[in-house]
Amino acid sequence: xxxxxxxxxxxxxxxxxxxxxxxxxxxxxxxxxxxxxxxxxxxxxxxxxxxxxxxxxxxxxxxxxxxxxxxxxxxxxxxxxxxxxxxxxxxxxxxxxxxxxxxxxxxxxxxxxxxxxxxxxxxxxxxxxxxxxxxxxxxxxxxxxxxxxxxxxxxxxxxxxxxxxxxxxxxxxxxxxxxxxxxxxxxxxxxxxxxxxxxxxxxxxxxxxxxxxxxxxxxxxxxxxxxxxxxxxxxxxxxxxxxxxxxxxxxxxxxxxxxxxxxxxxxxxxxxx
Length: 273
Prior knowledge:
This protein has 273 residues and is of the alpha/beta class. It has helices at 30-46, 80-103, 119-125, 153-156, 163-172, 178-183, 194-209, 213-228, 231-245, 250-259, and strands at residues 6-11, 14-19, 51-56, 108-112, 115-117, 129-133, 137-139, 175-177, 190-191.
């Protein structure tokens, strides 16, 4: 597929998805919501992509939702119930776009420069790990325009930062600067420049890509499962999961390579039908 708002590349088993409309502050109009899930699906389907980096071009990561992404004017001709039902389905489609990040077989690393606003926060909250530049800031913009954030921020961000801070940001719409985002655990590392961030995050991605993709997919799946379940439920579930998925040749590959003084080379995941 030819993308109008994204660029997609793969190198050394690392996928790179960039928001490419820096001239428009990487806003999210309907074209974004159509293209982004297709790009994720194509990358996940391949089997040879072991980690994904999501970044952007231009001064800001994303200015968030474009007003054109909201439901259309035709709903004004419907009664209240039908308009509400259509609005709910529209919101469901948008929520599922970022939920797809969590469902991917690979870890997703977000690299943020400049402003990460509104829908941008929804996006990065669904990623596995976040990094940013020193000039970055994060803003739950929806409250500033009379809305409650509704595409994942209110559900995911409380699992990443303290509850009191989460509520302050959601109620005030203030900017969270990079230094505070690092201190509070929203991001793992702050880089001096976008170039340094791209180099540093790609190095982390390549390190992940060296690991067994079967072990990585198990780790991501079990971490996500454990976030929503008790420790005992997750331990019991892991017994079943590991019995079904950990039967590959991964450990034998590792020890054979180490005995030969080499780095292990693991098979890719099978492509999805």
